[in-house]
Write a structure and sequence with these properties.
By secondary structure, the protein is of the alpha/beta class. It folds into 2 domains: 64 residues, no CATH class; 171 residues, Rossmann fold (3-Layer(aba) Sandwich). The protein has 12 helices and 7 strands. The strands form 2 sheets. A 5-stranded parallel sheet has the order 5-4-1-6-7, sandwiched between helices. It has a two-stranded antiparallel sheet with strand order 2-3. Helix 10 links the parallel strand 6 and strand 7. The longest helix is centred in the first third of the chain and has 22 residues. The radius of gyration is 20 Å and the shape is globular.
Length: 274
């Protein structure tokens, strides 16, 4: 890099730091949301993930000693089978909510998110329904029962209420939800967001064939405050699961990974590989 280019790069970083709240709230998310809403590369990534998972589902149906849930123990070989999905940015596309946030120039506000949920306007992540339609047609060769779809979400919702916004949007989009209180596992009012206890509940009643998510915590317990190096350790410890029983959907617009890069823009810049 020339001296002139280096000076310009430093000045550029200083300008960004001067407008850090706007940059972090809007500009970073702008690129991510544009990619998710407009690029064929995003659609190819999600559809490819769900397409490849069809073969994995069929294979795992024939492996009664396998499970996708780290929480599953004991003899689960004769349990009925199920697939666990996260919802937001895994099955449900909320990019229009993210787009509104970017257009406002304001950071995330819980009240805006709650208003979005009440609208029941989420779309489907490309490929999700095609996979689910395929999955519900499959039967467990041991129990002869169809594969069940389970949804484990950090939305605050009430699975016992047929008029709950999340229950209604899932049904509006034609996703299977015959007994919501047994299929939809919401974040409780005193819940930290760790999905481990809810996956344990799923694993008591079903052999978990596959899991789908857009965050590391959709697959395993991730300690609060874990840094980037710690996340890499968790990833490597379960490397054999990715693409076999665990399927990750792309989400560059938000997530715990972003917080792990640091609290300020200066911290984030330090984590760039130059």
């Amino acid at each position: 890099m020339s001296r002139r280019a280096a000076i310009l790069a430093v000045l550029g970083c200083l300008v960004l730091l001067a407008f850090e709240p706007f940059v972090m709230a809007s500009y970073d998310t702008l690129s991510a949301v544009l990619w998710m809403q407009t690029s064929v590369e995003y659609r190819a990534s999600t559809e490819q993930t769900y397409h490849v998972a069809k073969a994995a589902l069929v294979r795992e149906l024939g492996e009664p000693t396998h499970t996708a849930a780290l929480e599953q123990t004991g003899d689960f070989s004769k349990l009925p089978t199920a697939v666990i999905f996260d919802l937001d940015e895994t099955v449900l596309d909320n990019s229009r909510f993210q787009a509104r946030e970017v257009a406002s120039g304001q950071p995330y506000l819980p009240a805006w998110w709650n208003k979005w949920l009440d609208e029941r306007s989420a779309d489907l992540v490309p490929g999700a329904k095609n996979f689910i339609d395929f999955a519900v047609q499959q039967k467990d060769p041991v129990t002869r029962q169809p594969v069940t779809m389970l949804y484990v979400t950090n939305r605050t919702c009430d699975a016992s209420d047929d008029h709950d916004a999340t229950v209604e949007v899932l049904r509006k989009l034609g996703l299977p939800l015959d007994r919501p209180s047994e299929r939809l596992f919401c974040k409780g009012p005193n819940d930290s967001g760790d999905k481990t206890p809810r996956r344990e509940r799923c694993a008591k009643n079903y052999r978990i064939l596959l899991m789908f998510g857009d965050q590391l915590g959709d697959f395993m317990m991730v300690p609060d405050g874990i840094d980037l190096a710690g996340r890499q350790v968790l990833f490597k410890a379960h490397e054999n699961m990715w693409g076999e029983r665990w399927f990750q959907l792309p989400n560059p617009s938000y997530g715990d990974w972003y917080g792990a890069t640091g609290a300020t823009l200066a911290d984030k810049i330090k984590n760039l590989h130059l």
